[in-house]
Design goal:
Largest sheet: 8 strands, parallel
Structural class: alpha/beta
Order of helices and strands: EEEHEHEHEHEHEHEHHHHEHH
């Protein structure tokens, strides 16, 4: 199933592929052959949104380079999204991260590494407080007019920053951001306080990252079972150790009652959560890719089921900002 991304002319699959594992040491996708297998399986499974960043791959540009080699003649079968401007990236470009100089150098690097003539969705990875957002928007709009990108989005913006960006685009008379990418899952719903409502108000497509809480919501983890070879236990053990296992156990029981897996229920809840357009899920094996694609089409909660889920995982209490 394909959905329109915000007000753009891009259509993306309801389950996307997060590409931050390509080149990651210890993963099956550390190698080019492993990456080739995952990308080929994803396209065959009907996944069309591929989301990467110049930061990904545990060396600057590695994920993009591996994807460029893997996509080959199948490039036109997907919607290709990448990001630029993360402060942790060892980018070899001059200028502030949101400046025209930096953006133009970044896009040329990504196009070269991805072996393509255009990026479908080009995203500012993290806001750049040193550059007026109007400068960034004008530079991105210029890339659209040149055909180097088709649309642009942002990631990790606050609700206030999202609204200021929309106002700036309106004042400039240019194209505007079409998507927002922020963390959102059942166990991390801070974005539901302000960012998700802002995206809805502004007509943006919302692309949640860490939707499965690094695997915590796939059903592979239990109160007394933490898979040692999982990404959580290698990199973020606190996610499992500090989890609300009373809520997770109750959620598992609900899923069993409804005849769905935790993965199916989690993806179904997200995809029924406007304005979520596509759920970006990482994978390191072809079977994980196929499992995610199937699960995204399997189930949607009815009103009563949604209420039961959200009673277990409520939006954190706090003022709505922006």
């Amino acid at each position: 199933m394909q959905r329109q991304l915000g007000a753009s002319d891009l259509f993306v699959s309801t389950v996307g592929l997060g590409c931050n594992n390509f080149g990651r040491p210890g993963a099956a996708t550390e190698t080019q052959s492993g990456t080739d297998a995952v990308i080929g399986s994803a396209i065959d499974a009907g996944i069309t949104l591929f989301d990467t960043a110049d930061l990904y791959g545990y060396a600057f540009g590695r994920s993009e380079e591996m994807m460029g080699r893997a996509l080959g003649s199948r490039r036109d079968e997907i919607t290709l999204a990448t990001k630029f401007g993360h402060p942790d990236a060892d980018a070899p470009y001059a200028g502030a991260r949101g400046s025209r100089e930096f953006i133009r150098a970044s896009i040329e690097g990504s196009l070269r590494r991805l072996r393509t003539d255009r990026i479908d969705l080009y995203q500012l990875h993290v806001p750049d407080p040193s550059t007026p957002i109007s400068v960034t928007i004008a530079a991105l709009d210029e890339l659209v007019r040149e055909g180097k990108i088709r649309a642009f989005g942002h990631s990790n913006f606050s609700a206030d920053e999202m609204r200021l960006a929309a106002e700036a685009a309106s004042e400039l008379g240019t194209g505007a951001f079409v998507s927002a990418q922020n963390e959102l899952s059942l166990v991390q719903r801070d974005a539901d306080r302000d960012v998700v409502p802002a995206a809805r108000d502004l007509g943006l497509g919302f692309l949640p990252f860490f939707p499965l809480a690094n695997g915590l919501l796939t059903g592979k983890f239990a109160r007394t079972r933490f898979p040692a070879d999982s990404r959580i236990m290698r990199q973020r053990p606190h996610v499992a150790e500090q989890a609300d296992w009373d809520a997770l156990d109750a959620y598992r029981a609900h899923c069993a009652e409804w005849g769905v897996t935790m993965l199916e229920a989690t993806l179904g809840w997200l995809l029924d959560h406007a304005p979520v357009t596509s759920v970006i899920a990482g994978a390191t094996t072809p079977e994980q890719v196929r499992q995610n694609a199937r699960a995204g089409e399997r189930w949607r909660p009815d009103h009563a089921q949604r209420e039961r889920i959200e009673q277990l995982f409520p939006v954190p209490v706090g003022p709505r900002v922006g």
